[in-house]
């Protein structure tokens, strides 16, 4: 199969794993160029991963051989960069969050439709071994009929020490709802199907944070917290399942949990922010059972959504980490915020299909 040339815009923290996998794991991708607002960031990544071209965003978009452009910029820039990519007649694959408002996401989807181009959006962890095996366990009937679920992600200011641009984490887009729940909501939709309505409550304990990471450009400064730092939500799925979801960055450490409750068992799903982790079920008779992986991609395979989209473009099928799925996720998130403000239950208007499970027995690195 002819390789798909991709370009990457945004050469910050997460670009490393995309470049690692884009150059080594997915044989059908070829990273042709990288760009960043800060030219040194692009030059450094190009040198690290042997990418032939580090250039400006405009030069990257003018390259006629690049088919898919990957947007790894900060959330505040996602919509404008996505529109720029589509206006250059390229397919776009963007990091989450898809957008900071429903209207921005719709502008991107409308332009893509008008131009006959594809939109793919992270997260793609649901294509990994942990979540594909979890899907097979449910589809094979191991837990009977699912009736409820719960998701929980608590993390905290330890991330100040890890990310040089942690101050961004305190604004909308890096807040726990838009930054972390995409993993949980995408996993829920992959495992249980689409959501029909939501209610929620959002809040924050502190109004400012003093940056303690010496690598941060804002080291020592006290920056305002501009988005809710904890949310609690209740989701109702189209199939009648109900779920609770909690996300917070007010805490400390890192506590990820996702469980699906069925009439015959409880499924403990591995961390949906990761590709690995063995799913485990607790059965009616008290026994627990840990499952071996049914699928590959247990190592950090970020970028698998791009490879899936590249295959799908060649064969004409739907790609799985799609703009439609991300738009549904965004509608749920915005519904939670609306519900918190308006004190009422919100219908989720943007529909999507449950993404198809990956086939069994794929050759490693291949997705068709
Ligand atoms: N850091 C992580 O662990 C992680 C994990 C998963 C997903 N993500 C997502 O990936 C995205 C990027 O995160 P990050 O941690 O790499 O951020 P980062 O701040 O480290 O890097 C972002 C880069 O984008 C560049 N940039 C910003 N606006 C631009 C524009 N208009 N044109 C070109 N370049 C631009 C910046 O100069 C910077 O180098 C975010 O949406 C984030 O949610 C991050």
Can you walk me through this structure?
It contains 10 helices and 17 strands. It has a 9-stranded mixed sheet. The chain has a 6-stranded parallel sheet with strand order 3-2-1-4-5-6, sandwiched between helices. Helix 4 (78-87) runs parallel beside helix 5 and helix 8 (176-192) packs across helix 10 (323-342). The mean pLDDT is 94. It has 2 domains: 4-121, NAD(P)-binding Rossmann-like Domain (Rossmann fold); 129-295 and 329-347, Dihydrodipicolinate Reductase, domain 2 (2-Layer Sandwich), CATH 3.30.360. Strand 4 (68-71), helix 4 (78-87) and strand 5 (91-94) form a beta-alpha-beta unit. Helix content is 31%, strand content 25%. The longest helix has 20 residues, at 323-342. The radius of gyration is 20 Å and the shape is globular. It has 368 residues and is α/β, with parallel strands linked by helices.
Would you kindly provide a brief summary of this structure?
This protein is of the alpha/beta class and 368 residues long. The chain has 10 helices and 17 strands. A 9-stranded mixed sheet has the order 16-15-14-13-7-12-11-8-17. It has a 6-stranded parallel sheet with strand order 3-2-1-4-5-6, sandwiched between helices.
CATH T-level topology of the largest domain: Dihydrodipicolinate Reductase, domain 2
Sequence stretches where pLDDT stays below 50 over 5 or more residues: none
Shape: globular
Run of helices and strands:
EHEHEHEHEHEHEHHEEEEEEEEEHHE
The number of distinct β-strands equals 17
Task: Annotate the secondary structure layout.
Blueprint: E1 4-9, H1 15-24, E2 29-35, H2 39-49, E3 54-55, H3 57-62, E4 68-71, H4 78-87, E5 91-94, H5 102-115, E6 119-121, H6 129-139, E7 146-156, H7 159-162, H8 176-192, E8 195-203, E9 208-210, E10 222-224, E11 230-237, E12 242-251, E13 254-262, E14 265-269, E15 280-283, E16 288-290, H9 304-315, H10 323-342, E17 346-347
Parallel strand pairs: 1-2, 1-4, 2-3, 4-5, 5-6, 7-12
Antiparallel strand pairs: 7-13, 8-11, 8-17, 9-10, 11-12, 13-14, 14-15, 15-16
Helix pairs in contact: 4-5, 5-10, 8-10
The structure holds nicotinamide-adenine-dinucleotide (NAD).
Nicotinamide-adenine-dinucleotide (NAD) binds near residues 38 and 165.
